[in-house]
Every structure is written in C-alpha cells, then in structure tokens.
Amino acid sequence: MKKSTKIVVGIVIVFVLLLVWVISSYNGLVAKNETVETAWSQIDNQLQRRNDLIPNLVATVKQYAAHESEVFAQVSEARSKLAGATTVEDVAQADAEVTSALSRLLAIVENYPELKANENFIQLQDELAGTENRIAVARRDYNEAARSYNTTIRRFPTNIIAGMFGFERAQYFEASEDARQAPDVGDLFED
Fold first, then answer.
1. What is the CATH number of the domain that holds 38?
2. What percent of the chain has pLDDT over 70?
3. How far is residue 80's CA from residue 90's CA, in Å, rounded to a whole number?
4. Structural domain that includes position 154
5. Number of structural domains found in the chain
C-alpha cells in the first residue's frame, strides 16, 4: 500500500471516529435534555394535581367558614397565576403563592372543630399532603436532571457540541423562602 493511500485511510478513519463521537455526544445531550423535560412535566403534573384538589378543599371549608372570603380569593388568585406561569421561575413564584394561600386556608380550619372532623375534609387533607410530597420529589428529580444536563453541556469537549447545536442550560427549580416547606396539615388534626 502506498504512503499516500495510508494517509487517506488514516484521515478517513479519524474523520469517521470524529463523526461517531459528534453523533454520540449529540444523542447523549438530546437524551439528557429529554430527561430534564420529562422531570419538568412531572412537576407540572403534580402542581396540576394540587390545583385540582384546591377547589374541593375550598368548597368544603366554605361550608363552615363562608365569611373568610379574602382567603378564598387569595387561593383562587394564586391558582390562576400558577395556571398561567410558563417559565421555571414563574412557576416557582406562583407555586410559592399557592403554598402561602393554602397555609392561610389551613390556618382557618383551626377555628372550626367540626370542619376538622369532616370526613371529606380529612380525605382532601390526606390527598393534599400526599401531593405536596409528590411535588417535593418531582422538584428534586427535576433539579437532579437539570444538574446532570448542565454539567454535561459545560464539560469539555461536549461543550463544543452543545454550543454548535444550541443546547442551553436548564434553569433549576428554586422555590422561594416561603415555599421551602409544604403546609403542615398534620397538626390540624391534633387536639
């Protein structure tokens, strides 16, 4: 085999290896990006579940505390903001408002012992507590997926591929200070 043929074969091999690496890196970035998107959809899913529980909870509380209209309006307004939020930051802020409004709603319950004993209310409280736990898990999973993805797109040499194909950093879901804890629904039933 001639020297020039060996050089051409060597160049082709290097090119093929480089192409395989680019394709592999790109596909890895796509997979990590999809993991982030899937994790985000789980947060969205659980927030929607909570939003769907809230009207039933409000209706049950209204039966006993109809004069607490300001709190009901705050809950409704917070739910609307969450439904209209589009970015991670907007969702986190709206989620904080929902959590705060729910906390105020749950504080009302302390003044109504018969409400605390209502079977429908107890069931809704249990579902809400379970949903809050699911939201926390979904947030953690999303942030872990975002961390893994962000780390990958910043590492050399994958950062070159990420830059070439427009992969951008994922935002972390950072709840506000007020929203760092779920409403404490367990204390509502202790006497």
1. 1.20.1440.20
2. 91
3. 12
4. 3-189
5. 1
